[in-house]
Amino acid sequence: MRARLPDESGYVVNSGVRIHYEVHGTGQPTILLLPTWAIVDSRHWKMQVPFLARDYRVITFDPRGNGRSDRPRNPAAYADAVFASDVAAVLDATGTERAVLAAFCSGFPWALLLAAARPQLDQAANSRLARRVQMTDRVEADETLRAKCAIEQIGGHLRR
Protein backbone atom coordinates (compact mmCIF):
# COMPACT_ATOMS: atom_id res chain seq x y z
CA MET A 1 0.00 0.00 0.00
CA ARG A 2 1.24 3.47 -0.86
CA ALA A 3 0.31 6.65 0.94
CA ARG A 4 1.02 8.80 -2.17
CA LEU A 5 1.90 8.02 -5.77
CA PRO A 6 4.98 9.75 -7.19
CA ASP A 7 4.72 12.65 -9.63
CA GLU A 8 7.77 11.29 -11.42
CA SER A 9 9.80 8.10 -11.21
CA GLY A 10 12.66 6.57 -13.10
CA TYR A 11 16.02 4.87 -13.04
CA VAL A 12 19.53 6.22 -13.15
CA VAL A 13 22.51 3.98 -13.91
CA ASN A 14 25.52 4.44 -11.65
CA SER A 15 28.58 2.22 -12.11
CA GLY A 16 26.45 -0.23 -14.10
CA VAL A 17 23.75 -0.49 -11.41
CA ARG A 18 20.19 0.78 -11.99
CA ILE A 19 18.92 2.88 -9.08
CA HIS A 20 15.17 3.51 -8.86
CA TYR A 21 14.00 6.95 -7.67
CA GLU A 22 10.74 8.81 -7.15
CA VAL A 23 9.91 12.51 -7.00
CA HIS A 24 6.87 13.77 -5.07
CA GLY A 25 5.54 17.33 -5.04
CA THR A 26 6.87 20.49 -6.67
CA GLY A 27 7.58 22.99 -3.88
CA GLN A 28 10.89 24.31 -2.69
CA PRO A 29 13.26 23.43 -1.23
CA THR A 30 13.86 19.88 -2.41
CA ILE A 31 14.17 17.36 0.42
CA LEU A 32 16.11 14.20 -0.30
CA LEU A 33 15.05 11.37 2.04
CA LEU A 34 17.98 8.97 2.02
CA PRO A 35 17.55 5.25 2.57
CA THR A 36 18.09 4.31 6.19
CA TRP A 37 19.96 1.12 5.34
CA ALA A 38 20.79 -1.04 2.33
CA ILE A 39 18.11 -3.53 3.32
CA VAL A 40 15.29 -0.97 3.56
CA ASP A 41 13.61 0.42 0.45
CA SER A 42 12.27 3.93 -0.10
CA ARG A 43 8.78 3.06 1.11
CA HIS A 44 10.21 3.31 4.61
CA TRP A 45 9.38 7.01 4.21
CA LYS A 46 5.79 6.43 3.01
CA MET A 47 4.19 8.24 5.96
CA GLN A 48 6.44 11.31 5.72
CA VAL A 49 6.30 11.76 1.93
CA PRO A 50 2.61 12.82 1.61
CA PHE A 51 2.96 15.40 4.38
CA LEU A 52 6.21 16.86 3.07
CA ALA A 53 5.12 16.78 -0.59
CA ARG A 54 2.29 19.22 0.18
CA ASP A 55 4.84 22.04 0.42
CA TYR A 56 8.16 20.67 -0.84
CA ARG A 57 9.69 18.62 -3.63
CA VAL A 58 10.61 15.27 -2.07
CA ILE A 59 12.97 12.70 -3.59
CA THR A 60 13.29 9.11 -2.42
CA PHE A 61 15.18 6.20 -3.91
CA ASP A 62 15.68 2.49 -3.39
CA PRO A 63 19.26 1.74 -2.38
CA ARG A 64 21.22 -0.69 -4.51
CA GLY A 65 20.36 -4.20 -3.41
CA ASN A 66 16.76 -3.41 -2.50
CA GLY A 67 13.37 -2.42 -3.84
CA ARG A 68 13.34 -1.77 -7.56
CA SER A 69 17.08 -1.09 -7.77
CA ASP A 70 19.58 -3.64 -9.06
CA ARG A 71 21.31 -6.11 -6.75
CA PRO A 72 25.02 -6.35 -7.56
CA ARG A 73 26.72 -9.50 -6.31
CA ASN A 74 30.11 -7.96 -5.54
CA PRO A 75 30.28 -6.89 -1.87
CA ALA A 76 32.48 -3.93 -2.84
CA ALA A 77 29.46 -2.50 -4.68
CA TYR A 78 27.91 -1.76 -1.27
CA ALA A 79 30.65 0.47 0.17
CA ASP A 80 29.58 3.76 1.77
CA ALA A 81 31.32 5.79 -0.96
CA VAL A 82 29.39 3.86 -3.63
CA PHE A 83 26.08 4.56 -1.89
CA ALA A 84 27.04 8.25 -1.72
CA SER A 85 27.74 8.22 -5.45
CA ASP A 86 24.26 6.72 -5.98
CA VAL A 87 22.79 9.69 -4.12
CA ALA A 88 24.71 12.07 -6.40
CA ALA A 89 23.50 10.16 -9.48
CA VAL A 90 19.87 10.44 -8.32
CA LEU A 91 20.27 14.18 -7.75
CA ASP A 92 21.76 14.59 -11.23
CA ALA A 93 19.02 12.48 -12.84
CA THR A 94 16.31 14.61 -11.21
CA GLY A 95 18.01 17.89 -12.11
CA THR A 96 18.53 18.77 -8.45
CA GLU A 97 21.29 21.29 -7.72
CA ARG A 98 20.32 22.06 -4.10
CA ALA A 99 18.60 19.84 -1.58
CA VAL A 100 18.11 19.37 2.12
CA LEU A 101 19.51 15.94 3.01
CA ALA A 102 17.39 14.00 5.51
CA ALA A 103 19.09 10.91 6.88
CA PHE A 104 19.55 8.71 9.90
CA CYS A 105 21.10 5.35 10.63
CA SER A 106 23.19 4.17 7.65
CA GLY A 107 21.94 7.06 5.55
CA PHE A 108 23.86 9.51 7.72
CA PRO A 109 27.38 8.58 6.54
CA TRP A 110 26.14 8.62 2.93
CA ALA A 111 24.74 12.12 3.46
CA LEU A 112 27.98 13.23 5.08
CA LEU A 113 30.07 11.92 2.18
CA LEU A 114 27.78 13.64 -0.31
CA ALA A 115 27.77 16.91 1.62
CA ALA A 116 31.58 16.88 1.64
CA ALA A 117 31.70 16.23 -2.11
CA ARG A 118 28.95 18.73 -2.99
CA PRO A 119 28.95 21.55 -0.45
CA GLN A 120 26.64 23.64 -2.68
CA LEU A 121 23.72 21.27 -1.97
CA ASP A 122 22.55 23.03 1.17
CA GLN A 123 24.88 24.98 3.41
CA ALA A 124 22.57 24.74 6.44
CA ALA A 125 22.27 20.97 6.16
CA ASN A 126 26.00 20.63 5.61
CA SER A 127 26.82 22.69 8.69
CA ARG A 128 24.45 20.57 10.82
CA LEU A 129 26.16 17.43 9.49
CA ALA A 130 29.58 18.87 10.24
CA ARG A 131 28.54 19.84 13.80
CA ARG A 132 27.17 16.34 14.36
CA VAL A 133 30.46 14.81 13.32
CA GLN A 134 32.40 17.21 15.57
CA MET A 135 30.14 16.36 18.51
CA THR A 136 30.64 12.63 18.08
CA ASP A 137 32.93 11.53 20.86
CA ARG A 138 35.29 8.56 20.93
CA VAL A 139 32.79 6.25 22.64
CA GLU A 140 30.13 6.85 19.97
CA ALA A 141 32.70 6.31 17.22
CA ASP A 142 33.79 3.01 18.82
CA GLU A 143 30.15 1.90 19.15
CA THR A 144 29.49 2.79 15.51
CA LEU A 145 32.53 0.84 14.38
CA ARG A 146 31.48 -2.20 16.43
CA ALA A 147 27.95 -2.03 15.04
CA LYS A 148 29.27 -1.72 11.49
CA CYS A 149 31.54 -4.74 11.99
CA ALA A 150 28.58 -6.74 13.33
CA ILE A 151 26.49 -5.75 10.32
CA GLU A 152 29.28 -6.77 7.95
CA GLN A 153 29.56 -10.14 9.72
CA ILE A 154 25.82 -10.70 9.42
CA GLY A 155 25.98 -9.69 5.76
CA GLY A 156 28.76 -12.20 5.19
CA HIS A 157 26.59 -14.95 6.62
CA LEU A 158 23.65 -13.92 4.46
CA ARG A 159 25.75 -14.09 1.28
CA ARG A 160 26.83 -17.71 1.91
Short description:
Helix content is 41%, strand content 17%.
Number of domains: 1
Output the radius of gyration: 16 Å
What string gives the helices and strands in order?
Answer: EEEHEHEHHH
CATH topology (fold) name: Rossmann fold
Structural class call reads: alpha/beta
The biggest beta sheet is recorded as:
5 strands, mixed
Give the CATH class. Alpha Beta
**Count of helices?**
5
Summarize the SSE layout with pairings.
Blueprint: E1 8-14, E2 17-24, E3 30-33, H1 48-53, E4 57-61, H2 80-93, E5 100-102, H3 107-117, H4 123-135, H5 138-159
Give a description of the structure.
With 160 residues, this protein is α/β, with parallel strands linked by helices. The chain has one domain (8-159): Rossmann fold (3-Layer(aba) Sandwich). Helices cover 41% and strands 17% of the residues. The chain contains 5 helices and 5 strands. The protein has helices at 48-53, 80-93, 107-117, 123-135, 138-159, and strands at 8-14, 17-24, 30-33, 57-61, 100-102. A 5-stranded mixed beta sheet has the order 1-2-4-3-5. The radius of gyration is 16 Å and the shape is globular. The termini are far apart.
Labels describing this entry:
Rossmann fold, alpha/beta, 17% strand, 41% helix, 160 residues, disordered C terminus, five-stranded mixed beta sheet
